[in-house]
Design a protein that fits this description.
Length: 451
Amino acid sequence: MSAADLDAGLAEIRTALVDADVATPVADALITRVRVDALTQELVGGLGVGERLLAIVHSALTETLGGTARELDLRERPATILLLGLQGAGKTTTAAKLAQWFAREGRRPLLVAADPRRPAAAEQLALLGAAVNIPVHREPLGTPVAEIGRRAIAAAKRLGLDLVILDSSGRTTLDDDLLTELRELRAATQPRERLLVLDAATGQQALRVAEGFAEAVEPTGAILAKLDGDARGGAALTVAGGAGIPVVFIGTGERSDALERFHPDRIARRILDMGDLDTLAELVQQRGVAKQGASPELNEERIKRGDLTFDDLLAQLRQMATLGPIGQVVKMIPGMGGMAAQAEAAAASGEFGRAEAIILSMTPAERRDPALLSMARRRRIAGGAGRALEEVNRLVKRLEEMRLLMRRSSGVDPSRLMAGGGALRGKHAGGHQRPKETQREKKARRKGKRR
């Protein structure tokens, strides 16, 4: 591995990290670490330089993000969680999501409106609590924040509840008054867990906010809210690597159940556009959409084989609305992160509805075996769906490319997904470079055209 080759690869990786909203100082520190590791490690297992480099990057990212998922310390009864964060970060919404999460695990939570100055915050929490059937504790406007905390814990004990979630004050800036209030609330309630809620979309600004809270209130963990936008999770690396605060949950949408446990290895894969099939499978199971219709479960083995059919595609299209924002779901599919914005635009334009009409105009055999789709069959399908032949051709081509991409981007070693670092910026997903066909795939495609 020459120094020039290494520096070229690292430059591309650094660009990808910054594009994923990783703070520049954190990205630079990580690249420096990777360079040292790359120069001291020998290539093994026949992997190429690019593949090995990406494996090193993935390992370094995972370690920087915490290595393994962190469990919260909720041994006390009642246990107390203090939520921190600036106004607009999604703290109140996250409080309700967190309460519902632990309620599903068998805990009996109490939500507490701990902002003594903003009645709108208490009203919002009351509405969210009612929506998820979680009790909310409120005190009259102007009640000292320490007193709010003490009364809330007393109320939880009286009601037999075992978890208190304090939704603290939010301000647009981290000023002295807010910090004093948070210190008083912490002293009165003695929470083992102090979780900082950050807006994932703020990207590199998350580091400054995290460092400010870390100095004053010593957060024990962080929750990244609003990860349903374009951010791939770089803010997680910014917070964990830059401020040293482990991320414990991520919020992925507006739904009350749009909350996920944070797994460092999975978020590292998302940052590098390797996908996150483990979380996708869990999401399917949690929301009860597995095995609906004709689609088998989406798993590593099916992705590796690339055995995607139109039945699968139809079922997945129908499941998207159930799983959450389509852009977020697409990011969980290996190599498809670059298509998230396109998927959102397609959904908004009604393209998925048109694709469904085309697929439903196919026979069951055609949906199972795309190789059957000769030009005559495609014309019949276009007429049955009321769409142009070009639209049918585009859909068939899209499925072919997805099958090829899934075969190329999956395997035992996840770093194969981005050999040479090219897919870090979604070259396949963006349409810049179509995966090369094998002889077997060429034969199947030509056979379909002759029918």
